[in-house]
Design goal:
The chain has helices at about 45-55, 60-70, 115-130, 145-155; strands at about 15, 20-25, 30, 35, 75-80, 85-90, 100-105, 135-140, 155-160, 170-175. The chain is an alpha+beta fold. The strands form two sheets. The protein has an eight-stranded mixed sheet with strand order 3-4-5-6-7-8-10-9, sandwiched between helices. A two-stranded antiparallel sheet has the order 1-2. Helix 1 (about 45-55) crosses helix 2.
Amino acid sequence: MSCFRGSSGGYPGMMESQDGVSLVRDLKSYRDIRLRSARADDLDELQEIDAEAFGELAYPDFVLRQFFDVHHDSLFVAVRNTGLCGYSLGVSTIDHEEGWLLALAVRGSDRGRGYGRALTNETLALLRSHGVRTAYLTVAPDNVAAVGLYRSVGFTVLREAKDYLGAGQDRMIMTYGLSGNGQISGVADSHRRV
């Protein structure tokens, strides 16, 4: 793992550019992928991945662009030699007490290889580094693969929410506790699709 730390400190892997903008470089390498922060030239591929994973619930292009503009330090991509294979976005509330895994998507052809787990773990590590105590996410109850992934990472079901994203769009809200001793412990929930 390449770790750079700028004068302002922060998340491992983060450095400060000469113009004062925080940039996250390569975060970690796993078997055949590399995790890094998204770049503007990734946005077209991010949209493709999002549309494939979420269909009618995919973020519109402008929303992904705004996420990039506002949260580029927490918009991670998984990169293979053939291009992007997945992404995740985790953000904290203004008081940093809670965080949300707002998005996790992996191309269909790349699922089952541990890329979603790597992105999830990296996002949880980032949230923890921001002082977040509890992470949340939402997931469709019938998305067996995603629910299984989140449970295996340590998320637990907080509740089920009928029509959470509109009529017929029920979601399971999961939670994940981020302990103060450097360990990530099970409690989880999220805010969108998966």
